[in-house]
Design brief:
This protein is α/β, with parallel strands linked by helices. The chain has two domains: 176 residues, Medium-chain alcohol dehydrogenases, catalytic domain (Quinone Oxidoreductase, Chain A, domain 1, Alpha-Beta Complex); 134 residues, NAD(P)-binding Rossmann-like Domain (Rossmann fold, 3-Layer(aba) Sandwich). 29% of the residues lie in helices and 27% in strands. The strands form four sheets. Strands 3, 5, 6, 9, 10, 17 and 18 form a seven-stranded mixed β-sheet that branches. A six-stranded parallel β-sheet has the order 13-12-11-14-15-16, with helices on both faces. Strands 2-1-4 form a three-stranded antiparallel β-sheet, with no helix packed on it. Helix 11 links the parallel strand 17 and strand 18. The chain is globular.
C-alpha cells in the first residue's frame, strides 16, 4: 500500500509498504480522509519536533522513517482479538494520543500531559496518510451517520480548539480575540461561538482567511491597517477578556497579551519553532495571566456532538481536496506556496 513517510526535514516520500494487520487490541481502518496539520508542516520544514528521529519513541518503539497523518477518519475493515468497542463496517475517527498511563499526569487523567506523550502519525505506529492503518482500540471514536467522513477528519483539530476554549477562563458573554485564523484559529472561533462569547475579534494578515473568519461570525481585523492592540482596546472599550494566540509568531504573542484588559488571559494554542520574548511588566501591571494548552483530553465526544449540530463545518473550512499521490507537491508544498489555504484534505485511495 502507499503511505507518506517522514525521512528527514524537507524529505517526505510516498513509500510502498505492506498492508497492516489488526493485532490484538487493534482496529484496522481503511482511511477515507486525512487532513494536513500545521504540526505536519512544522515537521516538514523544521523537524524533527514530535517525530523520533534518532532514538525510538518510548511508547511505540519506532523512529524515522515515520508514517505521517493524525487527523483522519475511515471505515473499520478488521478488528483484532479482544476488540469490543467497534465492529467491521463502523465509521470512525481517531484520537491519536499515546500516553503511558503510569506517570503523575496520567494518574490524574491528564493524559495529554503524559511525560512520554506522543501522537499517532508523528511518534510511530502508523498514520493517516496511508491507504490502511491499524490503531489501538482506545483511540477509536464512532461517527454518527449525520457526521461525514470529511467532518470526521476535522474532529482532531476541532478537539484542539475546543480544549483550548474549555481550559481558558472564557465565560458566556465575554469578548475575545483570536490571533491567527488558519485552520485551528477558525476552529477556535467555532468553539467560542459554542461557548457563548458575545464578540469575537479575528486578527489575520490574509484577506481570504479574514473573510473565512467573518463567514463564521467573527469581526475581522487587518494588522496592516494600524496598531492591532489599539484597535481592539477601542472596539472593546478596554480590551478583551481572553485572547487566543494561534500563529506561533513571537511578536504576535506580545500583541495578544496587550490586547487583554486587566485580569485578562492569553491562551497560547500554537506550537512555536523558536523562543518568544515577552516583557513581564505587561503581565504584572495588569494582573494578566498567560496559559498554554497541548492537544486535548476527553473532548472528542463533545466535538462529534457539536458537529452533528452544525458546528465546525467542513464546507467552510476545507479549501482543497487531493489524493495521496499528490500529497507532497499539492499538499505540503502547496501550503508553503499558497498560504491562503485553510484545510487541505487528502483522500487515501
Amino acid at each position: 500500500m502507499k503511505a507518506l513517510r517522514w525521512h528527514n526535514v524537507k524529505d517526505l516520500r510516498l513509500d510502498n509498504l505492506d498492508e497492516p494487520k489488526a493485532k490484538q487490541g487493534e482496529v484496522k481502518i481503511k482511511v477515507e480522509w486525512c487532513g494536513i496539520c500545521g504540526s505536519d508542516l512544522h515537521e516538514y520544514t523544521a523537524g524533527p519536533i514530535f517525530i523520533p528521529a534518532e532514538t525510538p519513541h518510548p511508547l511505540t518503539g519506532d523512529k524515522a522513517p515515520i508514517v505521517m497523518g493524525h487527523e483522519f477518519s475511515g471505515q473499520v475493515v478488521e478488528i483484532g482479538e479482544g476488540v469490543t468497542k467497534v465492529q467491521v463496517g463502523d465509521r470512525v475517527t481517531v484520537e491519536p494520543i499515546y500516553s503511558c498511563g503510569k506517570c503523575e499526569a496520567c494518574k490524574q487523567g491528564k493524559y495529554n500531559l503524559c511525560s512520554q506523550m506522543g501522537f499517532y502519525g508523528l511518534a510511530g505506529g502508523g498514520g493517516g496518510f496511508s491507504e490502511f492503518t491499524s490503531v489501538p482500540e482506545h483511540m477509536i471514536h464512532k461517527l454518527p451517520e449525520t457526521v461525514s467522513y470529511e467532518q470526521g477528519a476535522l474532529v482532531e483539530p476541532s478537539a484542539v480548539a475546543l480544549h483550548a476554549v474549555r481550559q481558558s477562563k472564557v465565560q458566556v458573554g465575554d469578548k475575545v480575540a483570536v490571533f491567527g485564523t488558519g485552520p485551528i484559529g477558525l476552529l477556535v472561533i467555532e468553539a467560542l461561538k459554542a461557548a457563548g462569547a458575545s464578540e469575537i475579534y479575528a486578527v489575520e494578515l490574509s484577506e481570504q482567511r479574514r473573510q473565512k473568519a467573518e463567514e463564521l461570525g467573527a469581526i475581522a481585523i487587518d494588522p496592516n491597517n494600524g496598531d492591532v492592540v489599539e484597535q481592539i482596546h477601542h472596539l472593546t472599550n478596554g480590551g478583551v477578556d481572553v485572547a487566543y494566540e494561534v500563529t506561533g509568531v513571537p511578536v504576535v504573542l506580545t500583541q495578544a497579551i496587550l490586547s487583554t484588559k486587566f485580569n485578562g488571559e492569553t491562551m497560547i494554542v500554537s506550537i512555536f519553532e523558536r523562543e518568544a520574548s515577552i516583557h513581564p511588566q505587561n503581565i504584572v501591571m495588569k494582573e494578566r495571566t498567560v496559559s498554554g494548552v497541548i492537544g486535548y483530553r476527553d473532548v472528542f465526544p463533545a466535538v462529534i456532538s457539536l458537529m452533528a449540530k452544525g458546528y465546525f463545518p467542513a464546507d467552510k473550512l476545507v479549501t482543497k481536496r487531493i489524493t495521496l499521490d499528490d500529497v507532497i507537491e499539492e499538499g505540503f508544498e502547496g501550503l508553503l506556496k499558497e498560504r491562503n489555504h485553510i484545510k487541505i484534505l487528502v483522500k487515501a485511495e
